[in-house]
């Protein structure tokens, strides 16, 4: 059974940075792809970034050049480094595993 727990959200001014973490419990962290989604108030959940089991990364156009996805297999943790944050980045951020397990989300507010 996979369990995902996000942390690292908070409030930051525009131009600031945050680093989200997603702790993975269960089997297979290093062998499955992982990703980050976000959902802004009143909007649909959208894909932000993914990382495959071989390390291939993808980014949505609206975060390219600002966000970086990474993972530490020794710690079973997925990260999302977010720089140059904008008010439109305000959302609840969710991590998701390749087995379609989801975390509870962490709020990011940019003012």
How would you describe this structure in keywords?
0% helix, 10 strands, mainly beta, 111 residues, globular, 50% strand, 6-stranded mixed beta sheet
What do these coordinates show?
This protein has 111 residues and is an all-beta fold. 0% of the residues lie in helices and 50% in strands. The strands form 2 sheets. Strands 2-10-9-4-5-6 form a 6-stranded mixed sheet, with no helix packed on it. Strands 1-3-8-7 form a 4-stranded antiparallel sheet, with no helix packed on it. The chain starts with a strand and ends with a strand.
Query: Major sheet, described briefly?
Result: 6 strands, mixed
Radius of gyration: 13 Å
The helix/strand series, from N terminus to C terminus, equals EEEEEEEEEE
Low-confidence stretches: none
The count of DSSP E runs of length 2 or more, i.e. the number of strands, is: 10
Our measurement of the CA-to-CA distance between the termini, rounded to an integer number of angstroms, reads 37 Å
Strand order across the biggest sheet?
Answer: 2-10-9-4-5-6
**Which percent range fits the helix content?**
under 10%
Specify the number of helices.
Answer: 0
What is the mean pLDDT? Answer: 95
Q: Hey, roughly how much beta strand do the residues contain?
A: over 45%
Shape: globular
Report the structural category.
mainly beta
């Amino acid at each position: 059974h996979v369990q995902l727990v996000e942390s690292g959200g908070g409030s930051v001014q525009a131009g600031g940075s945050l680093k989200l973490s997603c702790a993975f419990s269960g089997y297979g962290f290093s062998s499955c792809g992982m990703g980050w989604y976000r959902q802004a108030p009143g909007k649909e959940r959208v894909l932000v970034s993914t990382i495959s089991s071989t390390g291939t990364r993808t980014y949505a156009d609206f975060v390219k050049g600002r966000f970086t996805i990474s993972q530490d297999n020794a710690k079973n943790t997925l990260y999302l480094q977010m720089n140059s944050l904008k008010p439109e980045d305000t959302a609840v951020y969710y991590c998701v595993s390749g087995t379609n397990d989801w975390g509870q989300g962490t709020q990011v507010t940019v003012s």
